[in-house]
Protein 1
Amino acid sequence: MPDRAPPAVRHLIVVLGDQLDLASTVFDDFDPDRDAVWMAEVAHEAEQVWSTKARIAVFLAAMRHFRDALRERGRRVEYRALDRHAHPTLEAALAADLATLRPERVVAVRPGEWRLAQSLPAVCREAGVAWSERIDTHFYCDPHDFADWAKGKKELRLEFFYRWLRKREDVLMADGEPVGGRWNFDAENRGSFGKRGPERLPKPRAFPPDATTREVVALVESRFASHPGRLHDFDWPLTPAQAQDALDDFVAHRLPLFGQYQDAMWRDAPWLYHSRLSAAMNFKLISPRRVVDAAIDAYRRGHAPIEAVEGFVRQILGWREFVRGVYWLRMPGFLDDNALGADAPLPAFYWTGRTEMACLRDALRQTLDLGYAHHIQRLMVTGLFALLFGVRPREIHAWYLAVYVDAVEWVELPNVLGMSQYADGGKMVSKPYAASGKYIQRMSNYCAGCRFDPGEALGPNACPFTTLYWDFLDRHADRFRDHPRAGMQWRNLDRIPEERMRAIRERAARLRETIDATSADAASLFPND
């Protein structure tokens, strides 16, 4: 007996790879007899930037698990798997299925990338199908609310937004005042490890691949064999249940010391006291409210101190919501920002990890292998070098979008262009995050295993970070010397004799000639010194 044709579609529910929310508003009036969910895997999403294997596998495996969860709930899912169809882009795949399924309406929440937020509705218009966009209840703050808050402000600052949102949502508040008597405990969140390194550090909960994930891993290893990274230790949480287990594990074992050591780094220790929840939250496998509430509950039970809990809440309710608001407020022009006139190509070792700079080597290899580095490795190692070197903002943005498992453009782009590279000229952060190799030495053990001396800007063992730091200050002195928050840092240039400063400029220029887009290594930079 031949298969019956599927019933006509009333609502085609579009679900993208970062919208895996079973409580999404797109399902509010779902009719199993007339509606269908549409999901598609396409090569373009892995190849528009040269994505790591881990990033590709996390997206595909999480999507397939979500597909299966929907089908278990009796929902019809039109799923286009990468290994079974040839549509090169999401737009092409959607256009083909609109022609076949002929729905009355497409229902979606706003995509997390400006490009798709424009192109997918355009596909529907071309097909003569209505596009209906539902409210995204995953976040605390809607982009329209953020725009209202930002109205009239020349500069957008996290601290003021964070206070406003905490008050509005009544998070860590008591009788109108912040719990603990202070709005933030950032000063207590900058601890570094002693010579013995991190102690009492249990490994985070692992999630070995099941049959669905193993199928994805095999597909990625075959289809994207030339992409960077490896998958033999792949163990990310990929379902809501696993995300909840990861949250419980973090709260029980690492949250109490997260605050003190959230900025610290240690060689060959990728996870430290961090949660490993960013990808799960960005894919909407777990609600940020649930994550925040679990941390606050740990404080109320006396399990974790206020410094740890507030610091963690600030990352989620504060920074995560802030960068999303900034993204939608400033796109698409944000992509073109380059306030510091950076024009250097991205060094090739960002794709190989082959460099004698120990901090970069560890952070880059960890990133390429695991698709992960914590926020200080991203900001003050890989991001700092790009800032000091003067890498073109679009190039370093594309690299960050390609390499991290949690990279969705609404969160990645503002973090890179606004915070890390100061490409927006201070609209988002008050000053550049510029530092010498001494910062990395203070916050890690990288320098102990490196041939470069972070205290030296000149000589055979001079640290490239330190040389480039002083050169960066010198190149941008006119802009920042009288800056209210950065001026003191820039006025340190006055203590350096002109002859020494000239030598630093020359060495920085030689660094740029040596470390270029065709260079595989920063080793043996100046053999004749």
Protein 2
Amino acid sequence: MQKGSIRVQTENIFPIIKKFLYNEHDIFIRELVSNAVDANQKLKTLSSIGEAKGELGDLRIDIRIDKEKKTLIISDTGLGMTEEEVDKYLNQVAFSGAEEFLEKYKGQNEANIIGHFGLGFYSSFMVSDRVEVISKSFKEDAKAVHWECDGSPEFSLEEIEKESRGTDIVLHLNEESLEFLEPSRISTVLEKFCRFLPIPIFFEEKQINNPLPAWTKKPAELTDEDYQNFYKELYPFGEAPLFWIHLNVDYPFNLTGILYFPKIKQSYEIQKDKIQLYSNQVFVTDEVKDIVPEFLMLMHGVIDSPDIPLNVSRSYLQGDPNVRKINSHITKKVADKLEEIFKIDRKQFEEKWESLGLFVKYGMMTDDKFLEKANKFHILQDSNDGKFYTIEEYRLAAETLQKNKDGKLVILYTTNPVQQDAYIQQSSAKGFIVVKLETIIDNGFLNQMEMKWENVQFVRVDSDIVDNLIDKQEGDESVLSKDDETKLKELFSVKNSELNVTVEIKGLSTDALPVVATRPEFMRRMKDMAAMQGGMGAFYASMPDEVTLTVNGNHAIYKTVLAESAKEKQEKVVQNLADLALLSQGLLKGNSLTSFINRSVELMG
């Protein structure tokens, strides 16, 4: 039996680093600039505890391009390195200088040290044939050193003259990476990864970052204008946000950030992945689905936490209990903020419900803890007079008239107030309250709430004649004779390949419509859901619609229709009455709609 230690050879490590460490090659700029930030932050820390003598001077990072020499240079004025430190940190792969520094100076502003893994520097070899490091330590009498490597295990290290403290990294770009000699390319990468790093960064003699973004300050230090201005900084072309939430937690995890509720008017404007994740002000990703609850992915803004575990390249999240805790905390903060706004300024809350409703409903469907709180501020809008009700307010206002024989509150709703106006008016005349549920998620929302709210049933206002919306009624008999009813049923036999039509004769009030088209609530919901699902759902969505034509036998028009001696004209009038009812449900399309128009013109003539 043989035992021993596994040997890792740098000949094998470098090709892996160059090819597989990072998903995107431009991330090398983030890593090198982050290291430069670390060098400055470490010097500040040492100066604050008296271990770095003299003036700190101008702490900054400069990025320069030399097109003739095909080099990209990243310089800092930080603590620099001695010859021993260069040998220790650059010649031993994956030895993390930041981790060692944190261990030694624990408690001394360690949150400002970005590095964790010790591999960031080697990302430079993804784009370079050769890399030089020229560094001079802050330590007294330290000699400057020059390190050079071509990406093989071979390197050179020698003393060199350098006037100022700090480190210059010179990348001799390979032929495949000459794009990084273009200022616009560098500006794009810096804008993405480095715009909020805490040390001033200069490129082409211009500072490109904001070292003190709004989320790093205390809420008491910021005005509404500050929050609005920061939103413009993040989204220059976006409309002003509705509200915002400032996150500021230091126990049991570190979390800062600002989340904004954007203004959303139409379903097609919904955009996810607009929240940016930072770790100590270093941009990581805008895919935050594990940290932010799914229903809040529509929000915009920034989250910053050094406690979120990342993979070695800082490009994606790793599973961890802290992620779940942060997720729950964000949910609670959002719910608390919405409840606070609702209580303090309900009018403003109602005015912004069109956009807020998407967040609230989505959250109530997917998160039971959020649902519990949201029941207090979720609101339903009356389609007739625009008044808003919480579910409890609606129950108090409507249950006298809108409780069915099973004891359930019947919430009448409309998905299209314009198209369904006739049905709404008939219901309002009965004293019923019809609310708007017309967004992209409302079909799923009402299905969920029927299960989660106690003794509640949703019924669309056009799902039956008004007398049957709360409880099925036998209805009064019409004034027509049985023979006339039979004749009308035959005349109303609609021939339409896209519809399964049932005809019934009822004795409705004389001022009710002559024909009412309704679609059964359950079947219509199933078809609506199937249409959104695709796949097998598309098959069900393509099946003919179930429609009931309720003929009002008490309407005066039928005396004229039945008395008409010209059979062809009689059939055309009846067909038009049926088509008008179908038109009110949006079920008259294509050839059927064209025939209706031509027939109407002919009858008028």
Protein 3
Amino acid sequence: MEQKCKIGAQQAAEARRTLEKYRQGKRALEQRIIEDDKWYRLRHWDAAGRHSGNPGDEPASAWLFNSLLNKHGDMMDNFPSPAVLPREPSDRSDAQALSAILPVILERSRFEEAYSRNAYPKLQHGTACYGVFWDNSLEHGRGDIRVTDVDPLSLFWEPGVSDIQDSRNLFVVSMVEDEVLAASYPGKKLHAPMTLAEYQRDDPAGQDGRSAVIDWYYKRPAKSGGMLVHYCKFVGDTVLYASENDPLLREKGFYDHGKYPFVLDILFPVRGSAAGFGFVDVMKSPQMYIDELDRMLLRNARLAGKPRWFVRDACGVNEEEFADWERDFVHVAGRMEADDLRQVEVKPLPAFIANHRQMKVQELKETSGNRDFAQGGTTSGVTAASAIAALQEAGNKLSRDLIKGSYRAFSEVCYLIIELIRQFYDEERAFRITGENGGAFIRYSNAQLRGGGREPVFDIVVKAQKSNPFSQLSQNEQAKELYRLGFFRPELAEQALGALELMQFEGIEGVRAWIAGNAQRLRERQERQQALEIAAQQAQTAQANAIRAPRQPLTAAEKLVPKEGRHD
């Protein structure tokens, strides 16, 4: 019996104790994530603990928020698109098929929404997570691949590892209502409360009446070498499913690829940690100073905007009438002296305070790479669209760097998808590749990926599916510059190809092929022209020779023909 059920209540209890150790090691990270979320939602006075007691005296400028939105826009303008490359010539057909199939699978999983949602936690606290699962409930029970975003607060790994794949165990915890669990698993008493870290929300769901459903992924050595990844779902000490209890999966693992089905997208890495830190950690200090200085300036403006008066006790001014600005007359009892009523003067703050605030704004822009040109603004008289585009391209190094990091994570997502296709696509499936009303279809299964002694291995190349409009403008300007310099003139093809060897830009191979084609067509035209000229010269020579040739004497037969019938 023990051999048939390797994972039971005892193993689930041990796994829960391991989870508690992982939770303790993640406390500081969870607290930072929750505080970063407050800064993102402009609740940073609460996060910084600097409440004044008067909510109207706590300005919250959105410089940090605007920087995050600008980076998010850069990421969406460069939404990734995969291209699968073969490592062996015999795998070209599968690579072409997978290049067409991967975007369809991602679209079915609404990956663009997951990519957009994950862009925010990556920018905020530097850690976003994708999950790549096989979901048996999809496609009417036939199952399919599901790619989704995972909340970093619900994911727990071994403290001290730099890669979650190196963690011995990996846990995903979700709080589910007890009534839902009772309906899903009738006959089982499932109740295991747990207090998880939560974001501060205006409408908190709460954790009362909910139980912690734990998805436990763990790695074990395989008999044939390498590591197997197994999966167990349990509530409290009750095991709901365990791959090691499944005779078909006990020796091969839950996923054939032997990896945890999670990919972390890190912004700024931290040594000794699988998580990173984000722009909020970099920008919150200048943001706080900006709002502190704003509070000083607003308080001074509020005091100066509401006049106050010193009133001598014996001056006899009717204070109620004096405070009512709608009255035309104010009664005074007795004689009023000049010093009886004097306005309280509020001196303006020194100019260096406003200047210092502006310097902090510039500091925040510089440290986040969100300068004016990045948002289409102009300074110093720069108004030409091409100049703005050039400055944007030069100033977008930070955006390009973080986007490349997302592309690396996206490549790992695509590798996991290919491995799930290799494992589960036993039946042939149809994918619509082009067209909205039918279009072209492709049918594919894992027969080629699993057949034979060698399993095909592929490389993933990621390119931007969408281009930034200003990047397009820059490329258009570059194309016009190449045209103006004569790069597309066939007679200058040799010089143009030599110059292209020293240049690097997107689409350079197409330009090189076009110029080479122009040169080839020019050579063909010249050869045809030369052949026509030679033929014409030969015809002229033949005609001239025929005119200069001496008349031949008539034959005997020609002499018998009457003269009027001859053509000589």
